[in-house]
Design brief:
The structure is a single chain. With 209 residues, this protein is α/β, with parallel strands linked by helices. Helices cover 57% and strands 13% of the residues. The chain has a 5-stranded parallel sheet, with helices on both faces. Helix 1 (10-21) links the parallel strand 1 and strand 2.
Length: 209
């Protein structure tokens, strides 16, 4: 695992880097203090980013990174293990989380699980996640699905995968201008101001596309 740590607390970042350096199969590429520095440090080799959520980072920044780098595993560290906090992190694009009181062994296990697409959490948290899917996402998704045309659904699916307008145009055999028109229409129908919001929506509820 190639890791970047994001925290404004230098002592925490350097301490984590030191602890992880002794873990076989893990290598800390950088410790950064904000998302601008994260973007500059990201390379195709990085597959895990640890984000200190106790420091009050804007979750919209997390959503943008998750949308731009769909293969990247974002892990929230220092999270209060409550269902509402876990759900907020999931909606922001985190693949996993580590509670505030967890030892370094739990962090290592969580990273290893996230890299292969698994999430480990207590049964009560898993139950809350399922209830949230039933109570919140499906009615909204059904309404949105009726608004989108088939072609807009195609564009939205590719948006959710982080494709640029040029990449969508090439994939669907359209002009860039036509793609821009579809994106504008999608944002209007979903009631969101930015494409990153549409990316988040379709990642949360892929059936709307």
């Amino acid at each position: 695992m190639r890791i970047i740590i994001v925290t404004p607390v230098r002592l925490l970042g350097e301490g984590l880097a030191t602890c992880l350096s002794g873990n076989e199969g893990a290598s800390v590429h950088a410790v950064v203090n904000d998302f601008g520095a994260l973007r500059r440090a990201l390379t195709s080799a990085i597959n895990v980013v640890l984000i200190d959520v106790s420091s009050g980072f804007d979750l919209e920044e997390v959503r943008c990174v998750a949308a731009e780098h769909p293969r990247l595993r974002l892990i929230a560290i220092g999270l209060r293990e409550r269902s509402d906090e876990v759900i907020r992190c999931g909606r922001a694009g985190f693949a996993a989380y580590v509670p505030r009181d967890a030892p370094i062994e739990t962090l290592c296990d969580t990273m290893a699980a996230a890299v292969v697409g698994r999430l480990t959490c207590p049964p009560e948290i898993a139950c809350s996640l399922l209830r949230q899917l039933f109570n919140g996402a499906a009615p909204q998704a059904a309404a949105n699905n009726n608004d989108l045309t088939r072609r807009e659904g195609d564009v939205l699916r590719l948006l959710g995968r982080g494709f640029s307008n040029k990449e969508i145009a090439r994939e669907l055999g359209l002009s860039v201008g036509t793609v821009k028109h579809h994106v504008h229409s999608i944002l209007s129908k979903l009631g969101v101001p930015r494409r990153t919001h549409a990316m988040r929506r379709v990642r949360e509820a892929p059936w709307i596309a």
